[in-house]
Amino acid sequence: MAPHRPCKKPRAVKDTAAAATDALISLPRDVLDDILTRLKLRDAVRTSALSRAWRHRWESIPSLDINIPWEQPPLWAVDSILLRCSGRVRGFQVDLDELSLRRLHDWLLVLSRRGLENLVLRPHEYDFFPLHSTVFCCRRLVSLDLFTCEIPPLPPGFEGFPDLKVLSLRNVKLHEKGEYQLEEIIETSPLLEKLILSETCIAGDDFIEWEIRAPNLRHLTICSHVDYGWNFVEMPYLRSAVIDFWEYVGDRDFAEFLAGLVQVTKLTIYTYAPVHADVPQC
Amino acid sequence: MAAPESGDGNNGAARMVTLISSDNTRFEVEAAAASLSQTLQLTILDGGGGGGDGIPLPNVDSATLSKVLEYCIKHAPAAANGGAPNATAVDRAELERFDNEFVNIDQSVLYSLIMAAHNLEIEGLQSLVAKKVADMIKGKSPMEIRRTLGFPDPTPEEQAEMNAHMLEYGWAYE
After folding, report:
1. A139 & A194 share domain
2. Are residues A128 and A160 in the same domain?
3. Which of B17, B64, B161, B171 could form a disulfide with A72 if both were Cys (CB 3.0 to 4.6 A apart)?
4. Is A77 found in the same domain as A47?
């Protein structure tokens, strides 16, 4: 940080311009917060360049949305933001490279205490990354979007996501008996409106049937080349569904499958394999 | 927000109130419009501002107050309908057009308006002016922000500090 030296030069020439510039920084705190919160974090940081008075102003934004573009190594950016800003973090969207993956656990710890609502994590390269169970401590999550990662078991005392509306797990791995974990997460997220399970791989050879109970679910996508034993039980408000039953139809009751979806107004079914099942008339 | 819908029983004529700016200009305006200000609303509900009395606003000069009232008068009908759930798309588009033009003003006026909206607690106007300032900053380089906001060009010393900051926060300047 630059040292502050008392300014002894006369300032008359700059007075008019200075008055204009001071007008903005002199606005009441909540007014300025309102303005800065409307900016992307990147633009808010750029206000540092306006003057010394502005240098650290962005750091006291009460609520942040951290979204680091993928071209940038997120490590320095995220560290400097989380260390400098004490405000709530509404959103966190980062493409994780190798260095930042080493910091992810620490970041999640901080984020879980900062009221995080929207979390999007994906690796920079196409390699599965291990996720820490701290993610399940982010109780205020409204939207959770995980891509290409290994999902850890639920921590003891997991209480669910009371505000979660969107859960998207794409190309993720779950440990053995992960079916029960999915069941529990969905069941303890009573506000869930959108569920996407795409290429969700569960370890182990046992075929475990499990139930999707989501009283507020509006949309469901299940794409998997293996039947992971899901059963639709309670989805009274479901309006649209995208189902890939690549290997599903052969072994299970297709009529029962459709019966779980009678409330849907838009249904997309597709498969890579030829379907030989008799499709009943509805 | 429930604004008084009619006058004091005199044939449904709109009730008027008087507001007095810091430079002693009197503005007569419908109570429903002035009530967009949370600060004024209680006084008006209590019957203040009518007759020969006026409500003094020592923090708002006449030029700014006139501008504020222009906003309130335009937005009062929609506000009286509880945010106008029945408003047509045409009505909404007209209000949007009005808003856009309304904040197309000199920065000094804009800052006075920000302070007035804040002091009078006019929610819609507070958002409108905050959005306007944010739009002036969005997507610009530091130099463009400085020029847009009327900052003088940086001294060499300031420029060196700016450069150091940009180096430290490279991700924000991509």
Report:
1. yes
2. yes
3. B171
4. no
Residues A55 and A153 both lie in one domain: no
Q: How far is A38 from chain B (nearest CA, A)?
A: 6
Q: Which residues in chain A are closer than 8 Å to B138, comparing Cβ atoms? A: 39-40, 43
User: Are A80 and B107 an interchain contact pair (Cβ–Cβ within 8 Å)?
Assistant: no
| Whether residues A208 and A79 fall in one domain | yes
Tell me, yes or no, whether A217 and A101 share the same domain.
Answer: yes
User: Per the domain annotation, does A2 fall within a domain?
Assistant: no
User: pLDDT tens-digit profile of B131-149?
Assistant: 999 999 999 988 898 888 8
The verdict on residue A252 lying in a domain is yes
Same domain, residue pair A189 and A113: yes
Number of domains in chain A: 2
Taking contacts as CB-CB distances below 8 angstroms, the residues of chain A near B152 are 14, 17-18, 21
Out of A28, A69, A72, whose CB is closest to B118? Answer: A28
Q: Would you give per-residue pLDDT tens digits along chain B (174 residues)?
A: 444 444 444 445 778 899 999 999 999 999 999 999 999 998 888 877 776 788 999 999 999 999 999 999 999 888 777 655 566 777 888 899 999 999 999 888 999 999 999 999 999 999 999 999 999 999 998 889 888 888 888 889 888 988 888 888 887 887
Give a yes or no: residue A183 inside a domain.
yes
Which residues in chain B have Cβ-Cβ distances shorter than 8 Å to A76?
170-171
Q: Which domains does chain B have, with CATH numbers?
A: 16-138 (3.30.710.10), 140-174 (no CATH)
Identify all chain B residues contacting A14, using CB atoms and an 8 Å cutoff. Answer: 152
Judge whether B12 is closer than 8 Å to chain A, CB to CB. Answer: no
Same domain, A101 and A149: yes
pLDDT in tens, A83-115: 999 999 999 999 898 889 999 999 999 999 999
Cross-chain Cβ contact B137/A20 below 8 Å:
no
DSSP string, chain A: -PPP----S--GGGHHHHHHHHHHHTS-HHHHHHHHHTS-HHHHHHGGGS-HHHHTGGGG-SEEEEE--TTS-HHHHHHHHHHH--SEEEEEEEEE-HHHHHHHHHHHHHHHTTT--EEEEEESSSS-EEPPGGGGG-TT-SEEEEESEEEPPPPTT----TT--EEEEEEEEE-TTHHHHHHHHHHT-TT--EEEEEEEEE-SS----EEEE-TT--EEEEE-SS---EEEEE-TT--EEEEE-TTTTTTS-HHHHHHTTTT-SEEEEE-SSPP-S-----
Q: Which of B137, B151, B162 sits opposite A43 (nearest CB)?
A: B137
A17, A72, A73: residue with CB nearest B150: A17
- Residue A276 located in a structural domain: no
